[in-house]
From TrEMBL:
Belongs to the IMPACT family. It comes from Seonamhaeicola aphaedonensis. Residues 22-126 form the Impact N-terminal domain. It holds the Pfam family Impact_N. InterPro entries: Impact, Impact_N, Impact_N_sf, Ribosomal_Su5_D2-typ_SF. This is Putative YigZ family protein. GO terms for biological process: regulation of translational initiation. One of its GO terms (cellular component) is cytoplasm. Gene3D superfamilies: Impact, N-terminal domain (3.30.230.30).
Length: 202
């Protein structure tokens, strides 16, 4: 069994996707996020933007190999908002994403099934409007070497088409590379067996 080393996420913010049901308005938002603080910031900003709304329900999933998630009904009946939103994140097989659905109450109660459908549909329409991309899960390494070994190191980096994310070229050199997870062990072994060259996981 090959280890999965890719994940799907969205590339940019999606705003103001509108769904209406019995005079209630639901506005969908999707944000790419890397941590919970970013998610909280987006939610707070939306509460300011839509300060007269009734509910700001949301769900997010963050992380690749070990993911954290949260689903919040924000005062709607239990599991009628946050989980339907979260299930759309799962349905699209995404991570590092936050979806917020802002509701303006239209005076007519929708009932639990109506609410569940409205939040699910708004989240779905929002994600359908998003640009979804596949990314690789990467491992970062620092390579330490003397200037005299520069050609050897750079040759391997070129041969293996490795991505350099940082470099410091002096008498003592250091290069940081980002390697796709499934290739990481073989790259580590290649550098590790070389004389006067050290490689360490970041």
């Amino acid at each position: 069994m090959t280890e999965k080393d890719t994940y799907k996420t969205i590339t940019e913010t999606i705003e103001d996707i509108l769904f209406k049901d019995k005079n209630s308005k639901f506005f969908g938002y999707a944000f790419p996020v890397l941590n919970e603080n970013e998610a909280k910031e987006h939610i707070e900003n939306l509460k300011k933007k839509h300060h007269s709304a009734r509910h700001w329900c949301y769900a997010y999933k963050i992380g690749t190999e070990t993911a954290i998630f949260r689903a919040n009904d924000d005062g709607e009946p239990s599991n009628s908002a946050g989980m339907p939103i979260y299930n759309q994140i799962l349905s699209f097989n995404l991570t590092n994403v936050l979806i917020v659905v802002v509701r303006y109450f239209g005076g007519v109660k929708l009932g639990v099934s109506g609410l569940t459908n409205a939040y699910k549909t708004t989240a779905q329409l929002t994600l359908e409007a998003a640009n979804i991309i596949k990314k690789t899960i990467n491992v970062d390494y620092n390579i330490f070497f003397g200037y005299q070994n520069m050609n050897t190191v750079m040759r391997i980096i070129k041969e293996k088409n490795l991505n350099i994310t940082h470099q410091k070229m002096e008498l003592d050199c250091q290069i940081t590379i980002s390697v796709r997870k499934k290739e990481a062990e073989s790259v580590f072994k290649t550098f590790n067996k070389l004389y006067e060259i050290n490689i360490k996981k970041v």
